[in-house]
Design a protein that fits this description.
Strand order of the largest sheet: 3-2-1-4-5-6
Helix content: 40-55%
Mean pLDDT: 85
Number of helices: 8
Distance between the termini: 41 Å
Largest sheet: 6 strands, parallel
Strand content: 15-25%
Low-confidence stretches: none
Length: 189
């Protein structure tokens, strides 16, 4: 990756079904970003459970394996599926946009059973939205692209998000953070 151009990480998830739901929209967002920032670089750290051969042809995206944390560190901004990867990115201080889309039936059941105002772990831990979230019908390139461009173009916005992510990291404290985070999520639910 060149150091003189912005980098956007793309992480659609580690399960095939989620990749199928999110990767197309993430790539559409990347295409729209390239129209405004043609020098923007894209990196996709591939989960071990996903075969590179199963992905569509995406010549402008650098696909890497076995280097998730390095890809997160190299990214100025991550477009990332809601899940544990958001917490990992938060711990690394990588600014992000969280997206998630599930089947309509699963969404209805989840909404009926769980009353969550936020879905991204950094936002749940912070108790407010510190990273933008796009869920279900909001997961559209036209909605995500302006926010991504803003973060990529404005270092002050990225730094502000990094500061909030640092606070989330501090809340996690010493070893045992996974258990504390799980307890925090359970108490929130």
């Amino acid at each position: 990756l060149r150091e003189d151009a912005p980098v956007m990480g793309i992480m659609p998830c580690s399960r095939r079904r989620e990749v199928d739901r999110l990767l197309t929209i993430m790539l559409e967002t990347a295409h729209q970003i390239r129209q405004t920032l043609p020098d923007c670089q894209f990196i996709l750290p591939l989960a071990p459970s996903i075969s590179p051969a199963s992905l569509p042809e995406i010549s402008f995206v650098k696909i890497v394996t076995g280097t998730v944390y390095e890809a997160m560190r190299a990214s100025d901004v991550m477009l990332i599926a809601s899940g544990t990867a958001t917490l990992e990115a938060a711990c690394l201080g990588t600014p992000m946009i969280v997206v998630y889309k599930m089947s309509l039936l699963t969404w209805w059941v989840a909404k009926a059973l769980v009353k969550l105002e936020r879905s991204g772990l950094p936002n749940i831990i912070a108790g407010r939205e510190i990273v933008p979230e796009f869920l279900q019908d909001e997961v559209q390139a036209e909605r995500i692209t302006p926010i991504a461009l803003e973060l990529l173009r404005e270092p002050k916005k990225r730094e502000a998000q990094k500061e909030e992510l640092r606070k989330v990291y501090e809340q996690l404290g010493c070893p045992g953070a996974v258990e504390r985070t799980a307890q925090l999520v359970i108490s929130y639910l």
